[in-house]
Write a structure and sequence with these properties.
37% helix; 10 helices; 353 residues; 7-stranded mixed beta sheet; single chain; two-stranded parallel sheet; binds NADP nicotinamide-adenine-dinucleotide phosphate; alpha/beta
């Protein structure tokens, strides 16, 4: 276990680039001197959460998988009782792109149900004051009307390729709701769209759509290949959110008096895969043609989140896709460029979630 003391949480200037506009009156939870557990702190969103909390004055509790396997119920219970966190950002989960989800559905369902049950029930038993659970936009039905409001949950069929993962996340949302209703626990869930940013997973098979296209654009540029092949026809739309924006929204929701048990947290607009691919080509310096493999699936055509609830709290995102993707590419170059191959022929799935 690592315990890290950070500096005082400045309410007036706590947002990304100082752009949050919530009022002091809205803040019910001050983190100064409080124990805050961030599960999955080594992952993309978890490490953004650590960055976001650095100025909060909290004692950040961070447990790597080696120190505490979240699948081990007894270990999680013991750890919670011994460490008594007041706030929990539950971020840790088994995460992957469409290929990983399609080939490992049993792992996604079993591991995420187990991890969530251990953390959420353990948090209740250890008397945690407030918990925030991170779900996913794949929990919404494929036929939900756009933009998708929170009450669309459980109203229709799910995307078959990621159904196991989606069901595990729906169970997490319902578990938080059930503990709220039965025990009065202040457990809240959020639904983000596609995330990207520093620390993303650029694995050739297991990455999400943005990381996948970015890696292949880089590889195509390095190999001098004239074409970058993207799966599908380029028309499906995706809403992207930078992880630093999401982490700041999570800190915001944790600090304020959240009226609802579920909040969509998106950027408020979406873009066609073809637009996203163009921006990625620009930031990576790939100057060849972007071709679309129409024989490959498009995936869900659109899943834009309705941001009304979180906006009414006073939160808004601060990082544009162009700036965010340029930063993501710098992070990719720093961490992965040497190991990335130069084979750009395999194409990139647009259907990733
Ligand atoms: N990425 C997206 O586009 C996206 C979109 C919507 C929602 N989300 C949700 O956001 C959260 C974070 O996603 P991410 O992209 O940041 O994922 P990530 O980079 O893969 O991070 C996941 C973290 O969970 C940890 N973890 C997994 N199983 C564990 C276990 N048994 N014990 C302890 N730690 C375990 C991992 O530890 P190791 O480092 O040891 O592997 C890792 O640190 C997840 O709940 C995900 O479902 C992500």
């Amino acid at each position: 276990m690592l315990v890290n003391e950070a500096s005082f949480f400045s309410v007036e200037n706590s947002g990304c680039n100082g752009q949050f506009n919530y009022q002091v009156d809205d803040v019910v939870n001050d983190f100064k001197g409080k124990k805050v557990w961030i599960t999955g702190h080594r992952g993309m969103l978890g490490s953004a959460m650590v960055r976001s909390m650095a100025d909060s004055g909290a004692y950040l509790l961070m447990t790597s998988r080696v120190e505490l396997d979240l699948l081990d119920r007894d270990a999680v219970m013991d750890w919670l009782h011994a460490n008594q966190p007041e706030f929990v950002f539950h971020i840790g989960a088994k995460v992957g792109g469409i290929f990983a989800n399609a080939t490992l559905p049993a792992d996604f369902l079993f591991e995420n149900l187990s991890i969530q049950s251990n953390v959420i029930d353990g948090a209740y038993r250890a008397g945690v004051r407030k918990l925030l659970f991170v779900a996913s936009n794949c929990t919404y039905p494929t036929n939900a009307s756009q933009p998708i409001a929170e009450d669309a949950l459980l109203t229709g069929p799910l995307d078959g390729n990621i159904r196991a993962y989606a069901v595990s996340k729906i169970a997490g949302i319902e578990m938080c709701r059930a503990y709220r209703r039965q025990h009065g626990s202040d457990f809240v869930s959020i639904i983000p769209p596609n995330l990207y940013g520093p620390g993303d997973n650029y694995h050739p098979q297991h990455s999400h759509v943005v990381a996948g296209i970015l890696r292949r654009a880089h590889e195509a540029k390095m190999a001098g290949v004239k074409e970058l092949v993207v799966w599908g026809d380029g028309t499906p739309r995706r809403e992207l959110l930078h992880v630093d924006d999401l982490a700041n929204a999570m800190k915001f929701i944790m600090a304020t008096d959240a009226e609802h048990d579920l909040y969509n947290v998106g950027c408020g607009h979406d873009m066609a895969i073809s637009q996203i691919a163009s921006i990625i080509a620009e930031v990576t310096g790939f100057t060849g043609a972007i071709e679309y493999d129409h024989s490959k699936p498009n995936g869900t055509m659109r899943k834009l989140l309705d941001n009304t609830r979180v906006s009414s709290l006073g939160w808004k995102p601060a990082i544009s896709e162009r700036d965010g993707l340029a930063g993501a590419y710098r992070d990719f170059l720093a961490r992965h460029a040497a190991e990335a191959g130069t084979d750009a022929s395999a194409g990139t799935a647009a259907g990733g979630h």
